[in-house]
Write a structure and sequence with these properties.
8-stranded mixed β-sheet; 15 strands; mainly beta
C-alpha cells in the first residue's frame, strides 16, 4: 500500500478538523453483485468474500448453501455473527432453534456446534457471517479435522479463483485496509 498524504480535513464551511491517524482518500466498498461466487469452497457451500483480515483474524463473507449440506462439529476461537437472508439452517445441538430469513445469531467464542441445512429446504440458504478468530473442526471420533481462519480462507479463495480462471476476487483486505480489485 502506498502512503497517502492528504490535506487537513475540513467541514463543509471550511473549519479545520483534527488530522486523523490513518487518513483515507476513498471508502472501502465492495458490491456483492460484482464479487464472483466461489463454488464448492466446501461441498455445496459457495461463498463471496467481503472482508478477509488475517492481521485482525476477521473474515466476513456471504455464503450460499445448498439444501442438505453440513460442516463438521466445530468451535470458533472468537465470536461469530450470522445474519440469515434466505432459507433455513440449524445446529444439530439446537434443533428447536432454526435460523430462518431475518434471523441474527451471535455466538460467543468457544461455543460448539454442527452446522447443517435441512435436506427438505426448498431453496438455497443465504447468510452473511462475520467471524473473529479460527474455526476449529473435529471428526466424529473427536480427532482434529481442520482449521479455517482469515488467512486460510484468503489462500483458498486465491487458489480456487486461479484454478478456475476467475481472476482476482474483489474484497476488503486488512493490514492497511484496502480493496483487492477484481
Amino acid at each position: 500500500m502506498t502512503a497517502r498524504i492528504l490535506a487537513q480535513p475540513t467541514t463543509s464551511t471550511g473549519a479545520k478538523l483534527p488530522l486523523p491517524a490513518l487518513p483515507q482518500d476513498k471508502l472501502l466498498t465492495v458490491n456483492i453483485e460484482q464479487i464472483p461466487l466461489i463454488k464448492d469452497v466446501f461441498p455445496g457451500i459457495h461463498i463471496k468474500p467481503l472482508r478477509l483480515d488475517p492481521e485482525r483474524g476477521e473474515w466476513v463473507f456471504m455464503a450460499i448453501v445448498e439444501p442438505g449440506c453440513s460442516l463438521p462439529i466445530h468451535y470458533h476461537t472468537g465470536t461469530a455473527q450470522v445474519w440469515t437472508i434466505q432459507g433455513c439452517w440449524k445446529y444439530r445441538e439446537y434443533p428447536d432453534q432454526p435460523q430462518t430469513a431475518g434471523s441474527y445469531l451471535y455466538e460467543p467464542g468457544g461455543s460448539v456446534h454442527t452446522f447443517y441445512t435441512p435436506e427438505d429446504n426448498t431453496e438455497d440458504t443465504i447468510t452473511i457471517a462475520w467471524i473473529e478468530g479460527a474455526q476449529v473442526s473435529f471428526n466424529e471420533d473427536g480427532t482434529f479435522h481442520s482449521l479455517n481462519d482469515a488467512l486460510s480462507i484468503q489462500y483458498a479463495i486465491q487458489a480456487l479463483a486461479a484454478a478456475r480462471g476467475i481472476g482476482p476476487v474483489p474484497y476488503v483486505r486488512g493490514n492497511g485496509a484496502d480493496v483487492i480489485e477484481g
